[in-house]
Design brief:
The chain has 614 residues and is an alpha/beta fold. Helix content is 26%, strand content 18%. It has helices at 2-33, 35-41, 71-92, 118-122, 126-132, 139-146, 224-238, 279-289, 329-339, 365-376, 387-390, 447-451, 514-524, 590-593, 605-611, and strands spanning 94-98, 111-115, 136-137, 171-177, 190-193, 201-204, 244-250, 269-272, 303-304, 322-323, 391-393, 404-412, 418-427, 436-442, 460-466, 476-484, 490-492, 498-500, 504-511, 537-542, 602-603.
């Protein structure tokens, strides 16, 4: 009996201790959360100030401001910030086309009519800034478009052309814009399907564009209402009511650019300005329009004739997976409940959605320039490919009100860590301006690369620079850029499992856009291209494959090795069994690997059990 009593006592003590421990754990979390309020109620001090007798001699201001701590200093800080913003707009805006030198506006171009609601939606006080610069803006047309704004990031919402007041003047300024962001990706084609375990599953685009404006579902194409507007403006130009049509595109998502060169729209000049706000940003744009500033920006995307022809598009969006027969509805629901409802996971029950990046590295210019190069070199299995039918303006494109010429490219490899690449830039036109210089690199596409599923683009952007000051007509300046030597490395996931320095010829070139760069390298290789300049290339040759030189992290010294084999359907031991038909796009066989339809991932029971951590 005594033993039993002691056991009961022990159980009671354990229970009480457990309760106290739980209370302490909860209490600790609660008190930490409400620490400021509790300290305030108890008038408790949590800090102690100790005076240093030598404090007057110690400078504790680690990051000294260039501005004084008074009203004058604050006003200068604000003004400098606005000036910086304006200069970013001025030097970042890209001139896409400029037929007949339509820009800068002539001194006789005083009457401007602004078409499109992009001006009112995406710029601050454009009509007011134009007026301050001495231009007369048609207020009736302005107000007609100001009354109709985009109601969502999937619509343009222009007024019907027939309701826009008639106008005439010197310049028709057409402002187009697009906006997208997290949770509101640019809409493209969308469908819904019923899967084995769920109904009405959205496939493709998460968002859906206005079907009337975008019958093809592509928010980044020209809307039907924009098409009507541009044709209407062209008709007014043909009637002599305007001398020129200037288009301004405000977007950080590249619209399809086929319309810019379409003679049916009669566009004389076009500017890409990205996304901006504030009146001082608008001032930067107007400074470009009137010639106060000569544009020197370059576009950071390829502008396609049709975005839907990009090899990434068939797998862009959200897509439901398929399941092998050994997965039941209970298995499906178990993953939803156990694996994807913790910590407010935004994926919730969408764990079975999967996107396969079949395009690999061939995104943007890395696809178009590489396939173009293979066409020029008559590479086997390259297929039919007409570069100009796909690309409206290549990556890095950007014109000026003057012209520039590059010469005397040099490459200095004396530094242990970087290559120093220099080129002379001469202003061969009649207007002062700046020029942005880009450095591209081509790595060798070797037999080792082909055997180990390594892809190499025709060109890779590895550096850039800009003339420091405005270059006057006839003058020349030297631009020097540094390129890290580790840019020569290539990741070898299927072979060495680390970064390698492959054998072969490496070409550096200085150019404006990516197409110029590709042609320069082709010319250096001896191919006949009309626009290439072999003098603007430098070649470095590595005689032997090196799997060691780049195999450690240059910052930490840690060994670099594969980390994500499990997310490659062809390498994961569970996934490859039911997804072995997957093909990644390869320049070794363009026609046989180009993705023409969405790849649907197949989940098997082993894959779902791993998700459940079983």
């Amino acid at each position: 009996m005594k033993v039993i009593k002691n056991r009961k006592l022990w159980i009671s003590a354990t229970a009480i201790t457990g309760v106290i421990f739980g209370a302490l754990v909860v209490g600790e979390r609660v008190t930490n959360y409400f620490e400021p309020a509790i300290n305030s109620m108890l008038n408790a001090s949590t800090t102690e100030i100790i005076e240093d007798p030598n404090a007057d001699q110690i400078d504790t201001e680690y990051y000294k401001s260039d501005y004084t701590y008074d009203q004058t200093g604050e006003q200068k800080l604000v003004q400098d910030g606005q000036d910086l913003y304006r200069s970013i707009v001025e030097e970042g805006t890209a001139l896409l086309k400029n037929d007949n030198s339509a820009l800068p506006l002539a001194t006789t171009d005083k009457k401007i009519t602004v078409y499109g609601n992009g001006a009112q939606s995406y710029f601050t006080n454009l009509n007011g800034v134009l007026a301050k610069a001495g231009y007369t803006v048609d207020s009736a047309v302005w107000d007609a478009y100001a009354a109709k704004r985009p109601t969502a990031r999937t619509t343009v919402n222009l007024p019907e052309w027939s309701t826009v007041p008639s106008s005439e003047g010197d310049v028709a300024l057409v402002v187009l814009g697009r906006r997208a962001g997290e949770g509101t990706d640019c809409a493209h084609e969308q469908t819904t399907i019923n899967t084995e375990f769920a109904s009405n599953q959205v496939q493709g685009s998460i968002n859906k564009a206005n079907e009337t404006e975008f019958p093809n579902g592509d928010y980044l194409s020209l809307a039907t209402t924009e098409d009507t507007m541009l044709r209407g403006v062209k008709a007014l130009k043909d009637q002599g009511k305007f001398r020129k049509i200037v288009v301004i595109i405000s977007t950080s998502n590249a619209m399809a650019g086929d319309f810019l060169t379409n003679p049916e729209y009669g566009i004389d000049s076009a500017l890409w300005v990205g996304q901006m706000s504030r009146e001082y940003g608008t001032q930067g744009l107007v400074n470009i329009l009137n010639g106060t500033v000569n544009p020197s920006g370059r576009i950071v995307d390829t502008i396609y004739t049709d975005n839907m022809l990009n090899p990434a598009m068939v797998n862009f969006g959200t897509f439901s997976a398929e399941f092998t027969d050994d997965i039941t509805k209970a298995d499906y629901d178990a993953v939803n409940v156990d694996a994807y409802t913790y910590s407010d996971n935004p994926q919730q029950s969408s764990w079975d959605r999967a996107v396969v990046y079949q395009e690999g590295i061939y995104v943007g210019y890395k696809y178009y320039e590489t396939r173009y190069e293979d066409v020029v070199m008559d590479t086997p299995k390259v297929g039919t490919f007409d570069y100009d039918s796909y690309v409206a303006y290549p990556f890095g494109h950007g014109l000026s009100y003057t012209t520039f010429e590059y010469s005397n490219m040099t490459l200095d490899d004396s530094d242990e860590d970087v290559y120093k690449i220099s080129v002379d830039v001469k202003n061969t036109g009649k207007v002062a301006g700046k020029n942005s210089v880009l450095v591209y690199l081509q790595k060798p596409y070797t037999e080792y690369a082909k055997e180990n599923h390594i892809e190499q683009a025709a060109v890779n952007l590895v550096g850039f620079g800009k003339t420091t000051d405005v270059v006057e007509p006839g003058e020349k300046t030297t631009v020097t850029m540094e390129v890290d030597k580790w840019q020569l490395r290539t990741y070898d996931a299927y072979g060495a499992g680390t970064y390698i320095f492959d054998s072969g010829d490496y070409y550096f070139t200085v150019a404006g856009d990516s197409h110029e760069a590709t042609n320069n390298i082709l010319a250096a290789k001896g191919y006949s291209v009309t626009e290439g300049d072999s003098n603007l290339t430098k070649k470095i040759t590595n005689d032997k494959l090196d799997t060691e030189i780049f195999s450690t992290n240059y910052a930490s010294g840690a060994e670099v090795e594969n980390q994500f084999d499990s997310v490659d359907l062809l390498r994961d031991e569970y996934a490859k069994k039911d997804n072995s038909d997957l093909k990644y796009l390869s320049r070794n066989d363009w026609t046989g690997t180009y993705p023409t339809e969405t790849y649907t991932v197949t989940y098997n029971s082993c894959m779902t059990r791993r998700i459940l951590w079983l």
